[in-house]
Amino acid sequence: MPLTLRDIPRFPDYVTGQTDHQFMQAARARGPLAMDRYGFVTAFSQAHMEMFNDDRWTRQIELEGMRAAGVSSGPMFDFVQNALLFANGQTHRNRRAPLVRTFAHKVIAELRPEVAARAEAMIAPLRGAGSVDFVQAIAGPLPAQVIAAIVGAPEEDTAMFAAHVYSAVRGLSIVGPEERAASDTDMRHLDRYVAGLIADRRTAPKEDFLTDYLRRTQDGPLSETEVRAQMIGVVLAGSDTTRGALTATVSHLLQHPEQWRMLVEAPQTWAAAAASEGLRFDPVIGSLARITTEPREIEGVMIPQGTLVAGSMLTALRDPAVYAAPDRFDITRQDHPRLHPVFGGGPHRCLGEALARIELEEALGALARILPDLELDGPPARLRGYGAVRDLTSMRVRA
Protein backbone atom coordinates (compact mmCIF):
# COMPACT_ATOMS: atom_id res chain seq x y z
CA MET A 1 0.00 0.00 0.00
CA PRO A 2 1.49 3.40 -0.98
CA LEU A 3 2.52 5.93 1.62
CA THR A 4 0.62 9.24 1.89
CA LEU A 5 1.66 12.90 2.14
CA ARG A 6 1.68 12.54 5.94
CA ASP A 7 4.53 10.05 5.60
CA ILE A 8 6.83 12.44 3.72
CA PRO A 9 9.63 13.78 5.93
CA ARG A 10 9.55 17.49 6.77
CA PHE A 11 12.41 19.82 5.93
CA PRO A 12 15.03 20.15 8.66
CA ASP A 13 15.57 23.38 10.57
CA TYR A 14 18.29 25.71 9.34
CA VAL A 15 21.56 25.32 11.20
CA THR A 16 23.40 28.57 11.83
CA GLY A 17 26.12 29.04 9.23
CA GLN A 18 24.65 26.60 6.73
CA THR A 19 24.61 27.52 3.06
CA ASP A 20 21.44 26.94 1.04
CA HIS A 21 23.17 24.02 -0.68
CA GLN A 22 24.04 22.41 2.66
CA PHE A 23 20.49 22.93 3.89
CA MET A 24 19.00 21.30 0.79
CA GLN A 25 21.45 18.39 0.97
CA ALA A 26 20.37 17.87 4.58
CA ALA A 27 16.76 17.79 3.41
CA ARG A 28 17.69 15.33 0.66
CA ALA A 29 19.37 13.07 3.21
CA ARG A 30 15.91 12.46 4.73
CA GLY A 31 14.66 10.76 1.58
CA PRO A 32 13.90 11.32 -2.10
CA LEU A 33 10.97 13.62 -1.18
CA ALA A 34 10.46 16.16 1.59
CA MET A 35 7.76 18.70 2.49
CA ASP A 36 8.59 22.32 3.28
CA ARG A 37 6.76 24.71 5.61
CA TYR A 38 4.55 25.99 2.77
CA GLY A 39 3.27 22.50 1.98
CA PHE A 40 5.32 21.95 -1.20
CA VAL A 41 6.42 18.39 -1.84
CA THR A 42 10.01 18.82 -2.99
CA ALA A 43 12.01 16.31 -5.03
CA PHE A 44 15.79 16.46 -5.18
CA SER A 45 17.11 14.51 -8.17
CA GLN A 46 17.29 15.81 -11.71
CA ALA A 47 15.12 12.90 -12.89
CA HIS A 48 12.41 13.77 -10.36
CA MET A 49 12.58 17.46 -11.27
CA GLU A 50 11.95 16.55 -14.90
CA MET A 51 9.07 14.32 -13.79
CA PHE A 52 7.51 17.17 -11.81
CA ASN A 53 7.76 19.42 -14.88
CA ASP A 54 5.78 17.02 -17.08
CA ASP A 55 2.66 18.75 -18.44
CA ARG A 56 0.87 15.40 -18.64
CA TRP A 57 0.25 15.34 -14.88
CA THR A 58 1.29 18.73 -13.50
CA ARG A 59 0.72 22.34 -14.52
CA GLN A 60 2.17 25.76 -13.85
CA ILE A 61 1.01 27.44 -10.67
CA GLU A 62 -1.42 30.21 -11.58
CA LEU A 63 -2.88 32.39 -8.82
CA GLU A 64 -2.27 29.79 -6.09
CA GLY A 65 1.10 31.40 -5.30
CA MET A 66 -0.45 34.83 -4.82
CA ARG A 67 -3.19 33.40 -2.62
CA ALA A 68 -0.60 31.52 -0.55
CA ALA A 69 1.10 34.88 -0.01
CA GLY A 70 -2.22 36.35 1.14
CA VAL A 71 -2.61 38.50 -1.99
CA SER A 72 -6.03 38.68 -3.69
CA SER A 73 -5.81 41.95 -5.61
CA GLY A 74 -3.43 44.71 -6.67
CA PRO A 75 -0.87 45.31 -9.43
CA MET A 76 1.18 42.14 -8.85
CA PHE A 77 -1.95 39.99 -8.62
CA ASP A 78 -3.15 41.46 -11.94
CA PHE A 79 0.24 40.81 -13.54
CA VAL A 80 0.30 37.16 -12.42
CA GLN A 81 -3.26 36.69 -13.64
CA ASN A 82 -2.29 37.85 -17.15
CA ALA A 83 1.32 36.73 -17.58
CA LEU A 84 2.70 33.88 -19.67
CA LEU A 85 4.73 32.40 -16.82
CA PHE A 86 1.60 31.62 -14.78
CA ALA A 87 -0.61 30.25 -17.57
CA ASN A 88 -1.49 26.82 -18.89
CA GLY A 89 -3.15 25.14 -21.86
CA GLN A 90 -4.57 27.29 -24.65
CA THR A 91 -4.11 30.48 -22.64
CA HIS A 92 -0.40 29.72 -22.35
CA ARG A 93 -0.15 28.92 -26.05
CA ASN A 94 -1.93 32.16 -26.98
CA ARG A 95 0.42 34.24 -24.84
CA ARG A 96 3.60 32.41 -25.83
CA ALA A 97 3.19 32.12 -29.61
CA PRO A 98 3.78 35.80 -30.51
CA LEU A 99 6.82 35.95 -28.21
CA VAL A 100 8.32 32.76 -29.66
CA ARG A 101 8.27 34.29 -33.12
CA THR A 102 9.50 37.67 -31.88
CA PHE A 103 12.27 35.96 -29.85
CA ALA A 104 13.43 33.99 -32.91
CA HIS A 105 16.98 32.74 -32.35
CA LYS A 106 18.39 34.67 -35.31
CA VAL A 107 16.90 37.93 -34.03
CA ILE A 108 18.47 37.47 -30.59
CA ALA A 109 21.81 36.25 -32.00
CA GLU A 110 22.07 39.47 -33.97
CA LEU A 111 22.06 41.36 -30.67
CA ARG A 112 25.42 39.90 -29.60
CA PRO A 113 27.58 42.75 -30.98
CA GLU A 114 25.36 45.33 -29.27
CA VAL A 115 25.48 43.44 -25.96
CA ALA A 116 29.28 43.12 -26.26
CA ALA A 117 29.63 46.85 -26.92
CA ARG A 118 27.43 47.73 -23.95
CA ALA A 119 29.39 45.40 -21.65
CA GLU A 120 32.73 46.84 -22.74
CA ALA A 121 31.51 50.44 -22.38
CA MET A 122 30.23 49.70 -18.88
CA ILE A 123 33.33 47.82 -17.71
CA ALA A 124 36.13 49.95 -19.24
CA PRO A 125 35.73 52.92 -16.84
CA LEU A 126 36.21 50.59 -13.87
CA ARG A 127 39.84 49.84 -14.68
CA GLY A 128 41.91 51.44 -11.94
CA ALA A 129 38.79 52.82 -10.26
CA GLY A 130 39.47 50.99 -7.00
CA SER A 131 36.74 49.26 -5.04
CA VAL A 132 33.33 49.13 -6.74
CA ASP A 133 29.98 47.49 -6.04
CA PHE A 134 29.77 44.85 -8.76
CA VAL A 135 25.98 44.55 -8.66
CA GLN A 136 25.41 48.30 -8.86
CA ALA A 137 28.13 48.97 -11.43
CA ILE A 138 27.78 46.02 -13.81
CA ALA A 139 25.46 43.12 -13.01
CA GLY A 140 22.36 45.23 -12.45
CA PRO A 141 22.72 47.88 -15.18
CA LEU A 142 23.80 45.59 -18.04
CA PRO A 143 20.71 43.32 -18.35
CA ALA A 144 18.40 46.23 -17.53
CA GLN A 145 20.04 48.32 -20.26
CA VAL A 146 19.78 45.51 -22.79
CA ILE A 147 16.16 44.65 -22.06
CA ALA A 148 15.21 48.33 -21.96
CA ALA A 149 16.73 48.77 -25.43
CA ILE A 150 14.88 45.68 -26.68
CA VAL A 151 11.48 46.97 -25.57
CA GLY A 152 12.27 50.46 -26.84
CA ALA A 153 12.81 52.39 -23.61
CA PRO A 154 14.94 55.51 -24.13
CA GLU A 155 18.54 55.25 -22.88
CA GLU A 156 18.02 58.06 -20.38
CA ASP A 157 15.20 56.12 -18.70
CA THR A 158 17.30 53.03 -18.00
CA ALA A 159 18.25 53.80 -14.37
CA MET A 160 14.64 54.58 -13.44
CA PHE A 161 13.44 51.56 -15.38
CA ALA A 162 15.92 49.27 -13.58
CA ALA A 163 14.95 50.58 -10.12
CA HIS A 164 11.28 49.79 -10.73
CA VAL A 165 12.11 46.33 -12.14
CA TYR A 166 14.33 45.23 -9.27
CA SER A 167 11.81 46.40 -6.68
CA ALA A 168 8.70 45.04 -8.41
CA VAL A 169 10.11 41.53 -8.89
CA ARG A 170 10.23 40.97 -5.11
CA GLY A 171 6.45 40.77 -5.12
CA LEU A 172 6.49 37.42 -6.90
CA SER A 173 7.67 35.85 -3.63
CA ILE A 174 6.10 35.68 -0.18
CA VAL A 175 7.17 38.99 1.40
CA GLY A 176 6.16 41.23 4.27
CA PRO A 177 3.59 44.05 4.03
CA GLU A 178 6.17 46.83 3.46
CA GLU A 179 7.91 44.97 0.66
CA ARG A 180 4.53 44.05 -0.84
CA ALA A 181 3.47 47.69 -0.88
CA ALA A 182 6.76 48.81 -2.45
CA SER A 183 6.56 46.05 -5.05
CA ASP A 184 2.99 47.00 -5.97
CA THR A 185 3.97 50.65 -6.31
CA ASP A 186 6.80 49.78 -8.68
CA MET A 187 4.68 47.31 -10.64
CA ARG A 188 2.12 50.10 -11.10
CA HIS A 189 4.90 52.36 -12.44
CA LEU A 190 6.10 49.63 -14.83
CA ASP A 191 2.59 49.00 -16.08
CA ARG A 192 2.06 52.67 -16.88
CA TYR A 193 5.51 52.98 -18.44
CA VAL A 194 5.08 49.94 -20.70
CA ALA A 195 1.60 51.17 -21.66
CA GLY A 196 3.24 54.40 -22.80
CA LEU A 197 5.87 52.56 -24.86
CA ILE A 198 3.14 50.49 -26.53
CA ALA A 199 1.11 53.60 -27.35
CA ASP A 200 4.20 55.26 -28.84
CA ARG A 201 4.96 52.25 -31.07
CA ARG A 202 1.40 52.06 -32.31
CA THR A 203 1.56 55.74 -33.23
CA ALA A 204 5.08 55.58 -34.71
CA PRO A 205 6.15 51.99 -35.54
CA LYS A 206 9.86 51.17 -35.78
CA GLU A 207 11.94 48.23 -36.98
CA ASP A 208 12.30 46.81 -33.47
CA PHE A 209 11.24 44.06 -31.08
CA LEU A 210 8.24 45.85 -29.59
CA THR A 211 6.78 46.87 -32.96
CA ASP A 212 7.17 43.31 -34.22
CA TYR A 213 5.47 41.92 -31.11
CA LEU A 214 2.56 44.36 -31.42
CA ARG A 215 2.14 43.45 -35.08
CA ARG A 216 1.98 39.75 -34.17
CA THR A 217 -0.64 40.35 -31.46
CA GLN A 218 -2.82 42.64 -33.56
CA ASP A 219 -6.34 41.24 -33.98
CA GLY A 220 -5.28 38.17 -31.96
CA PRO A 221 -6.84 36.56 -28.89
CA LEU A 222 -4.87 38.59 -26.33
CA SER A 223 -6.51 41.42 -24.44
CA GLU A 224 -4.73 44.74 -24.07
CA THR A 225 -3.95 43.82 -20.46
CA GLU A 226 -2.35 40.55 -21.60
CA VAL A 227 -0.29 42.30 -24.28
CA ARG A 228 1.05 44.68 -21.66
CA ALA A 229 1.65 41.87 -19.14
CA GLN A 230 3.79 39.90 -21.59
CA MET A 231 6.07 42.89 -22.13
CA ILE A 232 6.35 43.43 -18.39
CA GLY A 233 7.14 39.71 -18.05
CA VAL A 234 9.93 40.04 -20.63
CA VAL A 235 11.34 42.98 -18.69
CA LEU A 236 11.23 41.22 -15.29
CA ALA A 237 12.55 37.87 -16.51
CA GLY A 238 15.23 39.50 -18.65
CA SER A 239 16.67 41.61 -15.85
CA ASP A 240 16.63 40.07 -12.39
CA THR A 241 17.74 36.52 -13.14
CA THR A 242 20.67 37.64 -15.32
CA ARG A 243 21.79 40.07 -12.63
CA GLY A 244 21.95 37.26 -10.09
CA ALA A 245 23.52 34.72 -12.45
CA LEU A 246 26.30 37.08 -13.57
CA THR A 247 27.16 38.14 -10.01
CA ALA A 248 27.20 34.57 -8.69
CA THR A 249 29.32 33.31 -11.59
CA VAL A 250 31.92 36.07 -11.17
CA SER A 251 31.90 35.49 -7.43
CA HIS A 252 32.78 31.81 -7.88
CA LEU A 253 35.36 32.52 -10.57
CA LEU A 254 37.16 34.95 -8.25
CA GLN A 255 37.06 32.36 -5.46
CA HIS A 256 38.79 29.94 -7.87
CA PRO A 257 41.68 32.09 -9.16
CA GLU A 258 43.10 29.31 -11.33
CA GLN A 259 39.82 29.19 -13.26
CA TRP A 260 39.60 32.99 -13.47
CA ARG A 261 43.11 32.91 -14.96
CA MET A 262 41.98 30.36 -17.56
CA LEU A 263 39.19 32.72 -18.58
CA VAL A 264 41.58 35.70 -18.71
CA GLU A 265 44.03 33.80 -20.91
CA ALA A 266 41.38 32.55 -23.37
CA PRO A 267 38.01 34.30 -23.00
CA GLN A 268 36.76 33.04 -26.36
CA THR A 269 37.40 29.48 -25.21
CA TRP A 270 36.04 29.64 -21.68
CA ALA A 271 33.34 32.35 -21.44
CA ALA A 272 30.46 30.08 -22.54
CA ALA A 273 31.71 27.22 -20.36
CA ALA A 274 32.06 29.53 -17.34
CA ALA A 275 28.49 30.77 -17.87
CA SER A 276 27.12 27.22 -18.01
CA GLU A 277 29.02 26.16 -14.90
CA GLY A 278 27.97 29.28 -12.98
CA LEU A 279 24.33 28.57 -13.82
CA ARG A 280 24.74 24.98 -12.60
CA PHE A 281 26.88 25.43 -9.52
CA ASP A 282 24.84 28.21 -7.92
CA PRO A 283 21.57 28.60 -9.84
CA VAL A 284 19.63 31.84 -9.55
CA ILE A 285 16.39 29.81 -9.66
CA GLY A 286 15.96 27.81 -6.44
CA SER A 287 13.16 25.53 -7.62
CA LEU A 288 10.48 25.07 -10.26
CA ALA A 289 7.07 24.94 -8.59
CA ARG A 290 4.04 23.18 -10.13
CA ILE A 291 0.68 21.73 -9.10
CA THR A 292 -0.48 18.19 -9.85
CA THR A 293 -3.48 17.63 -12.12
CA GLU A 294 -3.85 13.90 -11.41
CA PRO A 295 -2.63 11.49 -8.73
CA ARG A 296 0.74 9.83 -9.23
CA GLU A 297 2.81 7.43 -7.14
CA ILE A 298 6.46 8.53 -6.74
CA GLU A 299 9.01 6.69 -4.63
CA GLY A 300 6.21 4.73 -2.95
CA VAL A 301 4.23 7.87 -2.04
CA MET A 302 0.83 8.61 -3.58
CA ILE A 303 0.84 12.29 -4.57
CA PRO A 304 -2.81 13.41 -4.86
CA GLN A 305 -4.25 15.73 -7.47
CA GLY A 306 -3.93 19.38 -6.45
CA THR A 307 -0.65 18.93 -4.56
CA LEU A 308 1.96 21.69 -4.77
CA VAL A 309 5.23 20.14 -5.94
CA ALA A 310 8.69 21.56 -6.60
CA GLY A 311 11.84 20.21 -8.19
CA SER A 312 14.83 21.60 -6.29
CA MET A 313 17.27 23.22 -8.72
CA LEU A 314 19.92 23.41 -6.00
CA THR A 315 20.12 19.63 -5.62
CA ALA A 316 19.15 18.61 -9.17
CA LEU A 317 22.09 20.57 -10.59
CA ARG A 318 24.40 18.82 -8.14
CA ASP A 319 22.93 15.38 -8.74
CA PRO A 320 25.76 12.80 -8.60
CA ALA A 321 23.78 10.65 -11.05
CA VAL A 322 24.32 13.37 -13.68
CA TYR A 323 27.48 15.31 -12.73
CA ALA A 324 30.94 14.09 -11.77
CA ALA A 325 32.16 15.70 -8.52
CA PRO A 326 28.96 17.80 -8.45
CA ASP A 327 30.06 20.02 -5.54
CA ARG A 328 33.16 21.20 -7.43
CA PHE A 329 33.03 24.43 -9.46
CA ASP A 330 34.71 23.46 -12.72
CA ILE A 331 34.47 25.43 -15.96
CA THR A 332 36.17 22.57 -17.82
CA ARG A 333 33.24 20.26 -17.02
CA GLN A 334 32.02 18.16 -19.98
CA ASP A 335 28.90 16.59 -18.47
CA HIS A 336 26.35 19.41 -18.79
CA PRO A 337 23.09 18.12 -20.33
CA ARG A 338 22.45 19.35 -23.88
CA LEU A 339 19.64 21.57 -22.58
CA HIS A 340 20.62 23.34 -19.35
CA PRO A 341 17.96 22.46 -16.72
CA VAL A 342 18.04 25.94 -15.15
CA PHE A 343 15.98 27.25 -18.09
CA GLY A 344 13.16 24.74 -17.49
CA GLY A 345 11.79 22.40 -20.10
CA GLY A 346 9.03 21.56 -22.55
CA PRO A 347 6.50 24.21 -23.58
CA HIS A 348 7.45 26.36 -20.58
CA ARG A 349 11.20 26.52 -21.30
CA CYS A 350 12.55 30.04 -20.84
CA LEU A 351 12.19 32.15 -23.99
CA GLY A 352 15.07 34.38 -22.95
CA GLU A 353 17.69 31.61 -22.71
CA ALA A 354 19.64 32.73 -25.80
CA LEU A 355 19.67 36.36 -24.66
CA ALA A 356 20.72 35.44 -21.11
CA ARG A 357 23.60 33.34 -22.43
CA ILE A 358 24.76 36.14 -24.72
CA GLU A 359 24.72 38.64 -21.85
CA LEU A 360 26.61 36.30 -19.51
CA GLU A 361 29.19 35.29 -22.10
CA GLU A 362 29.86 38.81 -23.34
CA ALA A 363 30.07 40.24 -19.82
CA LEU A 364 32.46 37.51 -18.68
CA GLY A 365 34.60 37.95 -21.79
CA ALA A 366 34.76 41.73 -21.37
CA LEU A 367 35.65 41.43 -17.67
CA ALA A 368 38.47 39.00 -18.48
CA ARG A 369 39.90 41.21 -21.25
CA ILE A 370 39.51 44.61 -19.59
CA LEU A 371 39.96 43.76 -15.90
CA PRO A 372 42.32 40.76 -15.87
CA ASP A 373 43.45 41.50 -12.30
CA LEU A 374 39.92 41.66 -10.92
CA GLU A 375 39.64 40.40 -7.34
CA LEU A 376 37.16 40.37 -4.50
CA ASP A 377 37.30 43.32 -2.13
CA GLY A 378 35.37 41.83 0.75
CA PRO A 379 33.05 38.83 1.09
CA PRO A 380 31.86 37.05 -2.06
CA ALA A 381 28.28 37.48 -3.26
CA ARG A 382 25.70 34.97 -2.10
CA LEU A 383 22.45 33.83 -3.63
CA ARG A 384 19.98 33.05 -0.85
CA GLY A 385 16.78 31.02 -0.77
CA TYR A 386 15.65 27.67 -2.12
CA GLY A 387 12.48 28.64 -3.99
CA ALA A 388 11.71 30.75 -7.07
CA VAL A 389 14.23 33.53 -7.83
CA ARG A 390 16.87 33.65 -5.12
CA ASP A 391 17.90 36.87 -3.34
CA LEU A 392 21.31 38.35 -4.08
CA THR A 393 23.76 39.97 -1.64
CA SER A 394 26.12 42.75 -2.69
CA MET A 395 29.73 42.16 -3.74
CA ARG A 396 32.61 44.59 -3.96
CA VAL A 397 35.46 44.00 -6.36
CA ARG A 398 38.72 45.76 -7.14
CA ALA A 399 40.35 46.01 -10.54
TrEMBL record:
<dbReference type="Pfam" id="PF00067">
    <property type="entry name" value="p450"/>
</dbReference>
<dbReference type="GO" id="GO:0016705">
    <property type="term" value="F:oxidoreductase activity, acting on paired donors, with incorporation or reduction of molecular oxygen"/>
</dbReference>
<dbReference type="GO" id="GO:0005506">
    <property type="term" value="F:iron ion binding"/>
</dbReference>
<keyword id="KW-0349">Heme</keyword>
<dbReference type="GO" id="GO:0020037">
    <property type="term" value="F:heme binding"/>
</dbReference>
<comment type="similarity">
    <text>Belongs to the cytochrome P450 family.</text>
</comment>
<dbReference type="InterPro" id="IPR001128">
    <property type="entry name" value="Cyt_P450"/>
</dbReference>
<keyword id="KW-0503">Monooxygenase</keyword>
<keyword id="KW-0560">Oxidoreductase</keyword>
<dbReference type="InterPro" id="IPR017972">
    <property type="entry name" value="Cyt_P450_CS"/>
</dbReference>
<dbReference type="InterPro" id="IPR036396">
    <property type="entry name" value="Cyt_P450_sf"/>
</dbReference>
<protein>
    <recommendedName>
        <fullName>Cytochrome P450</fullName>
    </recommendedName>
</protein>
<keyword id="KW-0479">Metal-binding</keyword>
<dbReference type="GO" id="GO:0004497">
    <property type="term" value="F:monooxygenase activity"/>
</dbReference>
<keyword id="KW-0408">Iron</keyword>
<dbReference type="InterPro" id="IPR002397">
    <property type="entry name" value="Cyt_P450_B"/>
</dbReference>
